[in-house]
Every structure is written in C-alpha cells, then in structure tokens.
Amino acid sequence: MDTNPFLVQGAGLGLRRPLIHQFLETQPQEVGFYEIAPENWITIGGKYGKAFRAMTERFDFICHGLSLSLGSTDPLDEHFILAVKHFMAEHQIKFYSEHLSYCSKNGHLYDLMPIPFTSEAVTHVAKRIKRVQDILEQPIALENVSYYAAPGQEMTEIDFFNAVVEEADCNILIDLNNIYVNSVNHRYDADAFLKAIPAHRIAYAHIAGHYQEAEDFLVDTHGADIIDPVWKLLGKAYELYGVFPTLLERDFNLPPIADLLKEVNTIKTMQVAWQTQHEKRYA
C-alpha cells in the first residue's frame, strides 16, 4: 500500500478543547496539522462546534480514535465507524488512526489494554482492521502502544505489530515515546525495534512525554515535557527513514501555548536539519 506522498506535512499538535479558541485567534504558523479524538468532537455544538468548524476550514486535521477497541472480542461498533466516516467527510479530515489495543469487554474498560502477542490475535485483529477500512473506504494508521504486561505472549512486540500490519494491509502511526517507554519497561533495544518497522507504511508519528515511576519503570502519561532520549529516538527515525509528519501529544498538565509551540518547533528544526543535510549529500 502506497503511503506517499504524506497526506499531512511538517510538525503537528494534538488539539485539546481548552486551547481551541487561543489557536483559532493566534493561528500559529509552526503547526502544520492538528489531531483530534473524534469521540470528543463528533457531537460538539455551540461555541466549541463553531470554533472547530473554523479550525477545520483553515488547517489539516487527522482523527485519532480512542474507543474502536480493535483487539476486543466484542462486535465492532459499526455505527460509530459510520459516524466517524461522516464526520471526516464533513470536516475534510485527512485520515483516521487507532491503537493496536482494546478497551472493551461487554462494555467499556476506560483504558487501552494490551492484546496478547499470538498468531490467533493477529488474525482476529487484522480481520477487524480490514472491516474498518472497508467501511471508511480508506486505509487507517495503526499505533504501536505502551503496555505494562504481556499476557499469553507467543512472539515479540515488534513481530506481532508487523504481522498485524502486514495481514491487515494498513498504515502505521509510529509512536516514539511508546517505543522508548516499552524498551525500558520490557528491557529491549529501542533502536532495534525502530529498525524493524516497515518504513514504507509510516503515515505519521507521535512524540510525547512520560512519567518516571522508577529507574526501570516508566508510565506513558502525555503529561510532561519530552526527554532527550525520546528526541534522540526521533532523530534516529529520521536518519533511518527520512522525514515524516510528526505530532506532539500533550493530554494534561497543559502548559502555556508558547511552551507547546517550543516543542513543536523542536520537531520542525529536526525536520529542516535532516532535509538540509540530505540536500547537501545529494547535491
């Protein structure tokens, strides 16, 4: 499946409702695209609905789902998928991404749970992803997730992830912070994981902060500044695969917009530096 050219460009930012009016007023040039969870916006009306419409008329957007529960044994919520399809068409949203996880079992669990790394799970999840893509009539991007236990593990995380992506024939949302967090918690080589990613499927990337509970235990929070090892992992990804759209996630402990834009600008600076070096190399 061809993922080029990228459907969004540059450095992106997750749009959080408390900041929407400030972004609409300032329209920061640093931000190349925005990402929203459709669950939080599909039914929004009033002043936030009007502000969101004004934003989508001016900027590129991606939908990043929270509740599709691709790994669940519950039936797919096809009514929700159709609602997302209509929402995306209404706002000209570029594409949809989701987590390789599940969050329901006879009702919502309100957390992203790890799917067992088994061949049976590969077949189950890939079939559900194909159905989602059939309904949306476009490929989705699948995110590698952070996890704190690996029940019933028969294969490594990267082998499981790649097997699902290959069988489902979907794209990838590569999350650099999740790779780093998992590499510490589960004691594997983050660079080796990164090198095993099927790069031709990358649609875009996430980068975020986390919380250090202990020296050997990190919690993926999206509530802190990005640390140097995660920035270095992003740099390594660009070195391996070239520049791809990369989005800053910040879900709580929201700092002033100026501080968010500093991290967005760091992404942009890294992208420009790679492009400049690449142009010189092949000049």
Explained architecture:
The chain has 283 residues and is α/β, with parallel strands linked by helices. It contains 9 helices and 12 strands. It has one domain: TIM Barrel (Alpha-Beta Barrel), CATH 3.20.20. The strands form 3 sheets. Strands 1-2-3-4-7-8-9-12 form an 8-stranded parallel β-barrel, surrounded by 4 helices. Strand 7 (141-143), helix 5 and strand 8 (171-175) form a beta-alpha-beta unit. The protein starts with 10 loop residues before the first strand and ends with a helix. The model has no long low-confidence stretch (mean pLDDT 93).
The string of secondary-structure elements, in order, is: EHEHEHEEEHEHEHHEEEHEH
CATH topology: TIM Barrel
Question: What is the tally of beta strands?
Answer: 12
| Count of separate DSSP helical elements | 9
